[in-house]
Structures are given as structure tokens and as C-alpha cells.
Amino acid sequence: MPVLNSPIAREVLEKAPGLAHMYERYTAQLDRLMAQGHLKPADLAGKRVLDWECGAGIFALLFIERGAGACEAIDSWLQVEDCQKAMGHIPNLRFEKMGIVDYAGDSSRHGSFDFIFANTVTEHMLDLPRQLPLIGRLLKPGGLFITNHDNYYQPVGSHDHGFLNYGDGPAIVRQGPACWDAPDKCAASAQHRAGVKEKLWWTWTDEMEKRLTPEDCTRCPYFKRSQPWAHLTCQGEFREVFPHVAFTTGFAKSSLNKVTPFQLKQFVIEAGFDIAGWQTNKIKNEPPPHLMAPPFNFSRDDLTTCTITVVARKAFCPYGE
After folding, report:
1. Span 7-153+257-314: which CATH code?
2. Which of 6, 207, 271, 275 is the most buried (most CB within 10 A)?
3. pLDDT per residue over 16-45, tens digit each?
4. DSSP 285-310
5. Which residues pair with 119 in a beta bridge?
6. What stretch(es) of the chain map to CATH 3.40.50.150?
7. Of 44, 116, 41, 38, which is closest to residue 279 (Cα–Cα)?
């Protein structure tokens, strides 16, 4: 059980004990933001906060717990009933199932927030250059915007977490067995593949099972997707190795926008913000040399930056306002 900072949190976790791990993890994340000086107590005390794409609402709870005057939490996929069951008793915390475009479409909300927070949201926004100015509209002049952005160009920026995920170090590590080195080949990873197919059904399917190549493991999609930076090194055969539309760019069911770190900074500046903080969190995997050479020409920073914390202040109204 995590250390609870307030009676509010104790009551919430009594109602929804399944949120305890998330509460503990996000508390540590918020503590780091404050220790690094990106977020100060004065940024919350009595202030009106918006948690953009709030997930289960834990950050919204933490903002109230740490002195925010009111917090609105919105999410395109919000389970409103679950949030209401756990946190509906908190009078200055409100949840709404709504995306940022519709939310900012209500002009009465313009200029009404002191602080807007987005945790691993911006990498999923398919029209990020148009959506960031909406954040500016909602903020008061000088208002604070903080986002934790998950960089697509890191070893598992594709979010293919059934095959690669964070380990110790920190480093991105293979999640399944190295069946290509096993005497029984595909059989050695069969159980893992079945688990991925059940839990992350869009990443591994029966059709993918037909593409296993035990006669030459280097051609196998399981082998390829078990290697860090697979989503970059397999560019020429991307649709074959990553067949589901979630991995592609620009479609309605795409899950990632593939913004580079440079583009992210440019979009924030163009949206009318002054950048007050830009902190990159690094991964220890060593990038393949060919990704830093033509025709890729990625920088080491592009490839080893796992997340970026962006701290920005509203400076002016975006173009066309």
C-alpha cells in the first residue's frame, strides 16, 4: 500500500484499491516534477487546473490533494462511472468524457485555466499542431502547460510493448524469449506469442503466426519486432512487420503521430508558448550505427531520448486568433 498524502486519497483508495499502484507511481512522478522545479506549489495553490486526457484521473486527484482550487479532468476514452465511483465525492474535481477539440469549442472556457497538464498525451494527438493552440486558448495569459511526451524515435517508441518494454538501467529490453537461439525455435516463444495475442490483440494475430520463418529466423516478424528500434530499422517492410493500422500514420485508428523532438518544440512555440523547461530522459540502449548514417540521419539524441518533459508558459494568442 502506498504512503497516502491525505484523507482524500485514503478514501479514494478504499473505494478503488486497484488504483493504489498508479497512485504510488504518479505520486513519485509528480514529486520529481516538483523537485526539478518544473512545477511549484504556487502553481497549484488555489488554482484552476485541467488534466488533459486524464486516464483514470489519478493526476487530477493529486492536484487537488496538493492544493488546487479546482480540477477538471477530460479524456476521449474516459470511464466516467469508474471515476465517479472512486472520486465523485470530491466537490472540486469534475470528470468529462470529451476530447480537447470539443472541450475548447466552448468559448466560455477560454482563458479560464491557470495550469494544464498532459501526461503521455501529445504523442497520440494526430493533429498536434492544431490542438496545441487550443491549450493556449484555454489558459490565462502566462498560464502554465506541462506535458510528458513519449518520443517515437526511442527503442520502443512504436509502443509495441508485447515485444519490447522498459527494464532496469533504464533500458528497453526484449519481453519474450530469444527463440531464434533455441533448439526448438518457434516453440520456445509460442506461449509468449499467445499471451501477446490475447492481451494486445492488435499487435499479434493469427495472420502474423503464419509468417514465422524457423528456417531463417532473421526474416521472422517475431525476431524483427524483438529488436530495439525495430519500427525504424524495418522501414522498407513496415506494413509487413507492423500490419495493424494502429502502427501507421494519419489514419483514424492510428495510435501515434511520430513527431520528432524538434517538431514538438516547434509546434509548442508556434502555438504561442514560451518554453520554460525542456528536460529529456535518456535510455541506455546503444543505437544501431546505421540509423545515424544516411539515409536515416537520426541524431543520438533523437534515438536515446525516451521521454521529454516540456514546461511552457502562454505568451500570446496563436496565429489566426
Report:
1. 3.40.50.150
2. 271
3. 999 999 999 999 999 999 999 999 999 999
4. PPPPGGGGSTTT---HHHHHEEEEEE
5. 148
6. 7-153+257-314
7. 38
